[in-house]
Amino acid sequence: HAADAHRTDLMTITRFVLNEQSKYPESRGDFTILLNHIVLGCKFVCSSVNKAGLAKLIGLAGEINIQGEEQKKLDVLSNEVFIKALVSSGRTCILVSEEDEDAIIVEPSKRGRYCVVFDPLDGSSNIDCGVSIGTIFGIYMVKDDHEPTLADVLQPGKQMVAAGYCMYGSSCTLVLSTGKGVNGFTLDPSLGEFILTHPDIRIPKKGKIYSVNEGNAKNWDGPTAKYVENCKFPKDGSPSKSLRYIGSMVADVHRTILYGGTFMYPADKKSPSGKVRVLYEVFPMSFLMENAGGQAFTGKQRALDLVPTKIHDRSPIFLGSYDDIEEIKALYAAEGKEE
Ligand code: P6P
Question: What's the predicted TM-score (pTM) here?
Fold first, then answer.
């Protein structure tokens, strides 16, 4: 039974990925090395977030901490840890972080074939009240060792070779896809290892939950307003859906992929491209959703087909259970016909 297996047959994330990668004869273990460095970053953030309240790691940068040092905000600290871990892996050539205006080109002596786009601490405004937050990452692979440029990361999400998130909540859970399904791993602090706890995650085909910031309702377009109306007042007499909105994308998406339903950050009159970022929020979460049997839609197209023009582009996003997203797509298609 699972608990016994955990005790003796430790399926750590490293072992799991090595098994997966060993199916490719050309694989030389580079991806596993890269992933191990991402995992190191997640372990650091997990431990810092857990003691943030105690070690006065929360609050604004510029405060002097108990050691009398210039205090860095947790998201700034996390960003530095991830950048150092990724560069020192020797497997990356270009990095894009939510925290850095410009892409980071890795110095030639430390370059590898992978491009990593990431949000080191998404939802960090929730730290001070103890709400779950997370790291989100996506991985592209370059074909040869040319001088890296932005073109290597301004690629549609369907070109990603892997994506995942790590949620720092009651437990530390890392959810990962390398393009063939989705698996979840939970940090066992006594071992310092992520252990496989959610093998082969499949999102329910239809859900009973919708997740959106209703505070933006006055600015929504027709199809979004109609979809939310149908969730509250179903026309077919089925029960109303429940609204769950945490305001931390990793937590809202994690609930959605496990329980089903939809997560939406629609465009609205105030922000015509919505709020969430294409490269390191929309693409990784859409990659995971499709690999779990769900869908991800921008209101105009399949999210993973979008071609970003700038590294911090935003896009509207509707992701979750296959059938629920079909309903949203039909509403947008109908609007297209009315125009
Ligand atoms: P709003 C957090 O700041 C974030 O980027 C996502 O994690 C979250 O889903 C969204 O913004 C919440 O935005 O406008 O509803 O507060």
Answer: 0.94
